[in-house]
């Protein structure tokens, strides 16, 4: 491996405008889309400076695609076997190499690989998140109950990884088990003091909570997320959101007590949830007949905007906002033989260049009735 060597091949990509959002004065909010030259899709990471979107192809690919939001060009970064989940800390992008038993560290400015963190053979890291200068990764090869959560302290000069989330026992339950077995690599998200680790591809999904600190403490297990969990993401103040194929709405829960805090319909299998804490909104993506994306104000009843990207083709975990919520990126499996396309929803909240959130978008008709959770 020769670190520091650029491995990018620039591709000129035609961007086609496919408007599908309408503001209240009937002006169309632009939605562009661009072909992504990857065999499949796993994750996306949006960077504001420079304005880029990184897309990974998952265990069956060997690289990343990088969309330049300024030029519209796409570059491929090669020699990243099984590039899957990503997490960013400053200019460093950490990429889980599910087929390489390692984590690559890329510079988002130069697109060069800075170093590679080796893991034990047959670790298969797949999902990642960062909180308080610690990189957490969900790992596990196949579906043999070999999954777990590992970590790397980013202030450790050696970047030594630890496999298995070893926890201090809960003072109120000293006999409680802190390590949890996962059917496969768990989907994770993290924020200051909190970690979520979710079982995927099971008929009944479970989301496990951990309190982070000098030593993580196991919290509780949520079993109300539905079957075949697709996405989980933190919002503000510990609230988190789930999307599952068995639900045609996203669900909101509180971290501390796992209390139910509402639902956000999308009208089909819920595949992606993307909260933006600064603007207090949630984008929900689904495998729907009416629209792929619905955007809600938190606590809202009807969406402030909806979008039809490529009906019924939204990718799992295929939504993410840029930093100031002026762009929502969506990924569909709309290309030839299900290859990914990146959709760019320009200013769906009507914030505009001056940053004034006047939100001119007119709510579209609500999606079909949703069953009351728990019934």
UniProtKB/TrEMBL annotation:
Region feature (Disordered): 346-375
Cleavable signal peptide: 1-22
Domain of life: Bacteria
Keywords associated with the record: Signal
Compositional bias segments (type: Pro residues): 363-375
Name the UniProt record assigns to this protein: DNA-binding beta-propeller fold protein YncE
